[in-house]
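To illustrate the input format used throughout this study, we show a single complete record. The first block contains the structure-token representation of the backbone; no residue identities are included at this stage. The design step must infer an amino acid for every position from geometry alone.
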């Protein structure tokens, strides 16, 4: 059984399950889905897919497109912002959702998937339920569910919807905002939610209410109305939604609202400010790092908060205990290999999507394998945790790469230069790497920090020539992808510039930054300057009688010297070992 985001691919019974319900899927679309799910995170070309499914038959590639459209409809996927199947034009498809292998073939409720979705979220789920009960009493609720990408916002919403008491009939309508669509189509998520209402079991009542109170909205859905309606107005729709909620409590969900158009934000404002009692709960799912300071959604949220007309639930990264629990669910066993939870928590930073992607990556690399034990099959590590490579899983790298490619070329250049440092990076360093004025670079990053998920401002450095702002990446994965996408020669050139800028900034006091200079010189492949910088730092440490630091620095120099040509290596090796011997003698000499 292969599981992904609420679904289970049952290869034994040749079917797909969602939350315990079997979904109808003909054999060929199932075969396409199975091949994609069994090869996640990589490009599957049209030819590969056709050869795998129709090995001895010529089939038009257009057939694949038809099946993929059918699969997207089944999974509720959007080609413009795919959660499952990503189309790569003229090349093929890539299954981008994390896939977890389960030993259990029992599909009766998908308990593992449900548990994974709400691990560490009991408090937030309880808050949503409490707010819903207020809505049941006629106290309309506007709720902002906030969190970074992959933190589990949609999973929490799904769990909340499933947890609603079946004895209290509820109408649920969902709309998805899509990046870029807001500039072309007003009310995009609203119309998607209304379309769902008009296709629900209560469609006759819903359409009758819309016909009477908001005919322009019904007409915009392509439904026939008796007379030519006026333009869509938020007041008419608010009245219609309140009457729909009078029949059955209404949960209205807008996902990725940070991509919403101004008209949709205006409608939410109108719903929030109406004073009449109503059994409406509007749940707005937002990534707070996306909208800029002047985005109408941020302005609305601040205003409603001040007026106490909304609630906010912020999803934080999972703690180590919750990550351990998520691992037990993902691996379908009661315990996890020793220290795996610490490793995954450190490198995922508690992001549930990244946790599952790391597990999948470890399995694909055969670092996490199944072995027979007295309790049956059990997942174990094939190498000690300290030997595991914290590489970025392919599927996460692809997701980040897509985000990067959507940026302007200039923004990509700035972020690539920033990746030369750690997760935190200084504006002056980026300016040095690009050989540009520091003030202009800092202004550029201020603008980026206001509108991008990638970075945020974290403070400032005090340099000999004045203060300089520094920033941090939202996650180390962004930094790693940006670093690896640069050509090695360009990276080396930029590292060299940073080291030289450090030397110029601290002229006469280079020993204070010698170790940092050595790091950049080494990354650039400038072996001898890196060694000389380490020697300078060692001399500074000798003056402070920090002999253990001296030994560490000179040992680093010996390691880097292995990259030098044989003649130079022998000379530098002798020099460094002599310095080591003198430092050792000094450390044992009486004061």
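Output of the design step:
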């Amino acid at each position: 059984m292969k599981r992904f985001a609420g679904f289970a691919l049952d290869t034994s019974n040749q079917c797909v399950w969602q939350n315990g319900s079997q979904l109808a899927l003909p054999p060929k679309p199932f075969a396409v889905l199975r091949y994609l799910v069994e090869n996640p995170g990589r490009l599957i070309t049209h030819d590969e897919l056709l050869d795998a499914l129709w090995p001895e038959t010529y089939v038009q590639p257009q057939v694949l497109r038809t099946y993929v459209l059918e699969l997207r409809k089944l999974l509720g996927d959007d080609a413009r912002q795919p959660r499952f199947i990503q189309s790569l034009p003229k090349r093929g498809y890539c299954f981008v959702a994390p896939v977890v292998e389960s030993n259990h073939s029992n599909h009766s409720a998908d308990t593992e998937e449900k548990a994974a979705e709400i691990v560490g979220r009991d408090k937030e789920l309880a808050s949503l339920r409490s707010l819903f009960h207020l809505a049941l009493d006629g106290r309309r609720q506007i709720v902002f569910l906030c969190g970074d990408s992959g933190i589990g916002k949609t999973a929490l919403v799904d769990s909340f919807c499933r947890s609603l008491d079946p004895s209290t009939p509820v109408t649920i309508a969902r709309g998805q905002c899509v990046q870029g669509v807001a500039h072309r189509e007003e009310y995009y998520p609203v119309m998607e939610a209304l379309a769902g209402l008009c296709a629900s079991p209560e469609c006759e009542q819903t359409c009758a209410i819309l016909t009477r109170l908001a005919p322009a909205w019904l007409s915009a859905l392509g439904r026939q109305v008796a007379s030519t309606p006026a333009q869509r107005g938020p007041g008419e729709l608010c009245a219609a939604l309140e009457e729909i909620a009078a029949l059955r409590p209404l949960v209205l969900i807008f996902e990725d609202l940070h991509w919403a158009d101004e008209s949709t934000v205006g409608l939410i404002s109108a719903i929030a400010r109406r004073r009449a009692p109503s059994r409406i709960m509007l749940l707005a799912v937002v990534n707070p790092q996306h909208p800029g300071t002047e985005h109408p959604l941020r302005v609305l949220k601040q205003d409603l908060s001040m007026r106490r007309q909304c609630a906010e639930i912020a999803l934080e990264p999972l703690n180590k205990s919750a990550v351990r629990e998520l691992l037990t669910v993902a691996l379908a066993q009661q315990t996890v290999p020793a220290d795996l939870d610490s490793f995954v928590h450190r490198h995922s930073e508690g992001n549930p999507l990244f946790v599952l992607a790391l597990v999948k990556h470890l399995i694909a690399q055969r670092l996490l394998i199944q072995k027979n034990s007295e309790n049956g099959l059990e997942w174990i590590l094939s190498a000690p945790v300290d030997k595991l490579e914290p590489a970025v899983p392919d599927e996460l790298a692809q997701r980040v790469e897509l985000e990067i490619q959507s940026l302007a070329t200039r923004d990509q250049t700035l972020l690539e230069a920033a990746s030369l440092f750690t997760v935190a990076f200084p504006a002056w360093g980026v300016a040095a790497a690009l050989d540009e004025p520091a003030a202009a670079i800092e202004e550029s990053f201020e603008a980026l920090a206001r509108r991008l998920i990638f970075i945020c401002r974290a403070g400032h450095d005090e340099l000999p020539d004045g203060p300089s702002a520094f920033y941090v990446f939202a996650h180390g994965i962004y930094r790693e992808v940006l670093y690896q996408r640069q050509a090695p020669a360009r990276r080396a050139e930029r590292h060299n510039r940073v080291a030289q800028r450090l030397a110029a900034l601290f002229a006469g006091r280079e020993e204070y930054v010698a170790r940092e200079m050595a790091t950049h010189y080494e990354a650039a492949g400038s072996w001898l300057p890196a060694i000389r910088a380490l020697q300078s730092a060692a001399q500074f440490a000798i003056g402070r009688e920090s002999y253990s630091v001296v030994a560490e620095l000179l040992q680093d120099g010996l390691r880097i010297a292995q990259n030098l040509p044989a003649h130079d290596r022998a000379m530098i090796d002798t020099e460094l070992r002599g310095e080591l011997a003198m430092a050792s003698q000094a450390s044992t000499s009486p004061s």
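Structural context for interpreting the output: The chain has a mean pLDDT of 86. The chain has four domains: 2-101, 121-314, 320-387, 396-588.
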